[in-house]
Amino acid sequence: MNSSADTNAPQVSAEQEDFMKKLRATLEGLPHEINLYLFTDRDKINDVFSDSAREVIRFFRNMTSKIKFLEYDLTHDVARKWGVDRAPTLLVAPERYAIRWLGAPMGEEAKTFLETLILVGSGKSNLSDQARKIIGKIETPRKIKVFVSPSCPYCPQQAVNAVKAVVEQPEKVSLEIIDIQCYQDLAYKYAAQSVPQTFADDVLIGQGAQSEELFALSLEKMEPQTLFIPDSDAELVETDLLIVGGGPAGLTAGIYMVRSGLRTAVVERGALGGQVATTPVVENYPGFTQVGGKTLVDIMVNHALQYVQIFQGEEVVDIQPGKPITIITSRRRFTATAVLLATGANHRHLDVPGESRMAGRGVSYCSTCDGPLFKGKKVIMVGGGNSAVTEALYLHHMGVDVTLVHRRDQLRAQEHLIKNLKENKIPILWNTAVKEIRGDQRVREVQLENTATNEMSTLKLDGVFVSIGYDPAVDLARKIGIELTPEGFIRRDAKHRTNIPGVYSAGDVEGGYKQIVTAAGQGSEAALSIFEDLINPYWRKKQAGAEAKAQSVSKKTKQTK
Length: 561
Ligand code: NAP
Description:
The protein is 34% helix and 23% strand. By secondary structure, it is α/β, with parallel strands linked by helices. The chain folds into 3 domains: 31-221, Glutaredoxin, CATH 3.40.30.80; 235-346 and 472-542, FAD/NAD(P)-binding domain (3-Layer(bba) Sandwich); 363-468, FAD/NAD(P)-binding domain. It starts with a helix and ends with a helix.
């Protein structure tokens, strides 16, 4: 027996082992074989992308006999046969589908790759009925390009949308998934400076991750769509509580509610975890001295999934108060006794000329997603809070030439982060406001104003990262008549009840300290309060009180008569 080998073996938990067992069974059970053709360039030395692609493919290939892995040099006839002229390029089941991966399916993209294998191996698109109907209307060919990066938590959703479209309509739809880190030249050519970004026949049809239905509609109409209302015959799901938002508040509430014995569903239109998913590093969540935001999210999501059903990539488009409350998403209808709005917050904009025009062309709100594209390039990070400093440090460590630009002479960030900023000698432009962002295809320069002297100057650069705080995501709340505070947050009582009976709130949408730990705390508080109310609803108490009062008034009136 070799005891040292045993000690050095990677520790695999029972849960991981169980997951791998299920994954093996799923892959082995796929009805179709999947040929994976990887094209590499033997003259390229230390090609990390080819090495990673090979490693990821082998990992899955070793799990099942259903995957066949073939590797060819770029000069081989097979490369010519499939029209491959870049390395690494991965073709997925090219005999049946036109799915081409330019780069390596690593990081977040490994999830996309696994889903692709399952979709291609099953031969079923798994699209929602609504999305399938739209894709079915496409009559002329569509060549999709989705630009992604391995550190972008939003990218898998959009890339998988595109894979589903190919599997649904293989004769008409083809796809290239392009890693911007590996193919910077293509990102540059398409001016795709933020991810995910989606083109069809070289026309931009989506910036950011879309719901399946909005993606399908954008692909059909060949321009980005922002609203999709499902048909009235959409699937109906009955539940006790529907939680809108899959960030720390929503996920925590989900865990608490199901453990209390109530039927609960979480609906999240984008990436699970909210802002945490794109936070490079978290250092103040108890139990973790230092943890990547996405890693923390994965831990939370896995925990939540043990209890609660999560409907991801689905957008709540309307809530109709009543008994029950009806919630309409882009895919189905829910009825629920209570709704918890945990919709979080959206990143704030500078609102200066050029900002929206250059969004995705060098203006970015997500350093973890888009940072890799700016390695060795000059950017500014605008803001003076914890987020701006954390992200400036992240970009600096990635090899980006970053300068912090702050409108005052003092940072709002925690002392610990400021110390880190100084130790890393990250330059700071104090008392400086961005007045305009200029460029054509991509950002070229910014106009700056010294807020102390009003002096104007110009700075040549490649990118502008904006991290100046968040505004509460209250569009839905506003639409259904929820009262807001003068600062724009949801107004709620001590039990997280809003002015609409049965509708509650939790997390950043309520304002307050906006920490991961406080959002989780608010989620648990709201869940406990909802549980108490559903057992003995407060609005029934109020109603009963009002009826009793009315009866006593009427009695008194009769007596006086
Ligand atoms: P924040 O704390 O609200 O800071 C926003 C920063 O942006 C401030 O420095 C503000 O300047 C500046 N700003 C606001 N509007 C601006 C504008 N129009 N133009 C230029 N600058 C502008 O936001 P955050 O840093 O995104 O953090 C949000 C929340 O998450 C906070 O509660 C924060 O504590 C938390 N967070 C915590 C951590 C951590 O603990 N490690 C990490 C990330 C986030 P002024 O200072 O002049 O107002």
